[in-house]
């Protein structure tokens, strides 16, 4: 099969197109013939070796954790799926080696979901990792409830685009930060208040609007933004980050909870998200398509950030 391969840590130039043996599914796995794979920040972080002390790596490795495509084979114990089913999945394995920048992947059937028919394969590829990240952060971790006020940093990004929709659907008041060019986009997604982080002091603006504090901050930026965001929370508020674990001393000083999420594959939650999309309650996020052969360019674009939606790689 055709795949993008990384043989050592380094820059985007380390990504090479190669031919590898096509994997066969184990008893509880399905083989997915991949149509599109999405590009996520974790992909270039893996390439640069930033996760080497957290997750086992084995070279040569194929990057990519998002996939959509068609079931092309099933393991002997799989009953839910059959050959020809359209599916999508967040394909993170215990060892980083077999990723989704490839024509095929074999993955545990329990972590796979049916693709919403309302989306194209390209649109669906952008959903699994970002969708599960937003869902697990807002609901499993921060326990966001109806009527609460939530700030979602970087609402125009892949995770932010879905987090806004999920939070609005749950009945929360949604604040988000975005550059002026993305204001119309995030308002269309459901944001109640949009603050231009480039043109004004976003945190001071939110303090002025909500002097008693807000309930939840969803941090997708980290660094100083995360630290200063504690100042926005009311007593008992929650800050959940997907970038880095929050400082415990800041949590204690502001009488708030600091939470960290490293998204976990979950076929049940992904199927629920798929159903919400199929029902028209959650819409697709904006995508930019590039061919698999331009994986290096795609990762470089993603690494520069400030993009709207997500980049997806066309495999076939």
Automatic annotation (TrEMBL):
<dbReference type="Pfam" id="PF08240">
    <property type="entry name" value="ADH_N"/>
</dbReference>
<dbReference type="Pfam" id="PF13602">
    <property type="entry name" value="ADH_zinc_N_2"/>
</dbReference>
<dbReference type="InterPro" id="IPR011032">
    <property type="entry name" value="GroES-like_sf"/>
</dbReference>
<dbReference type="GO" id="GO:0005737">
    <property type="term" value="C:cytoplasm"/>
</dbReference>
<dbReference type="InterPro" id="IPR051603">
    <property type="entry name" value="Zinc-ADH_QOR/CCCR"/>
</dbReference>
<dbReference type="InterPro" id="IPR002364">
    <property type="entry name" value="Quin_OxRdtase/zeta-crystal_CS"/>
</dbReference>
<feature type="domain" description="Enoyl reductase (ER)">
    <location>
        <begin position="10"/>
        <end position="313"/>
    </location>
</feature>
<dbReference type="InterPro" id="IPR036291">
    <property type="entry name" value="NAD(P)-bd_dom_sf"/>
</dbReference>
<dbReference type="GO" id="GO:0016491">
    <property type="term" value="F:oxidoreductase activity"/>
</dbReference>
<keyword id="KW-0521">NADP</keyword>
<keyword id="KW-0963">Cytoplasm</keyword>
<dbReference type="GO" id="GO:0003723">
    <property type="term" value="F:RNA binding"/>
</dbReference>
<dbReference type="InterPro" id="IPR013154">
    <property type="entry name" value="ADH-like_N"/>
</dbReference>
<comment type="subunit">
    <text>Homotetramer.</text>
</comment>
<feature type="region of interest" description="Disordered">
    <location>
        <begin position="296"/>
        <end position="316"/>
    </location>
</feature>
<dbReference type="InterPro" id="IPR020843">
    <property type="entry name" value="ER"/>
</dbReference>
<protein>
    <submittedName>
        <fullName>Putative Zn-dependent oxidoreductase</fullName>
    </submittedName>
</protein>
<dbReference type="GO" id="GO:0008270">
    <property type="term" value="F:zinc ion binding"/>
</dbReference>
<keyword id="KW-0694">RNA-binding</keyword>
